[in-house]
Amino acid sequence: MKRSNIRIIGVPEQQEEEQGLENLFEEIISENFPEVGKKKVTQAQRVPKKMNPQRPTPRHIILTMANVQDKERILKAARERWKVTYKGSPIRLSNDFSTETHLTRKQWMEIYKVMQSKGLNPRILYPARLSLKIEGEIRRFTDKKRLREFISTKPAMQERLKGLV
């Protein structure tokens, strides 16, 4: 399901108190993407506070756009521009995944980390697929069952990933 949410990462928390999140987004758009024009935001909020002393970054902002096409235009412009700033400091604009997609991607992380430590160079693709380059061929797996079936045909992979899948 396509969602019309954008996640903004890296905006200091004091900024919202001064002008509100909707106005802050309009300022970011006018500063970085004047060609996109003014887009309507229906809802804006900071994610809930989960303090982690190891990572003192500001909370993300989630914006709900009026429609999906506006979100896609803004994200496309952000990808083309490469560097998006707010008052001179770099920020990131990204897609806000659904909860289901986030949980599915999280399930791949244990396998991803083990494969990365073994030098297999895995990737997690959108929305939640694992990709591996094996014997010069790129393989994509949508779930653990398919990965398990593939590994069962490769004895060398079975030994490297013993007990993981």
From TrEMBL:
Residue ranges of domain L1 transposable element RRM in the record: 3-96
Domain L1 transposable element dsRBD-like: start-end pairs: 100-162
Pfam families hit by this protein: Tnp_22_dsRBD, Transposase_22
InterPro entries named in the record: L1_C, L1_dsRBD, L1_RRM_dom, Transposase_22
Signal peptide annotation: none
Recorded family membership: Belongs to the transposase 22 family.
Protein name: L1 transposable element RRM domain-containing protein
Gene source species: Myotis myotis (Greater mouse-eared bat)
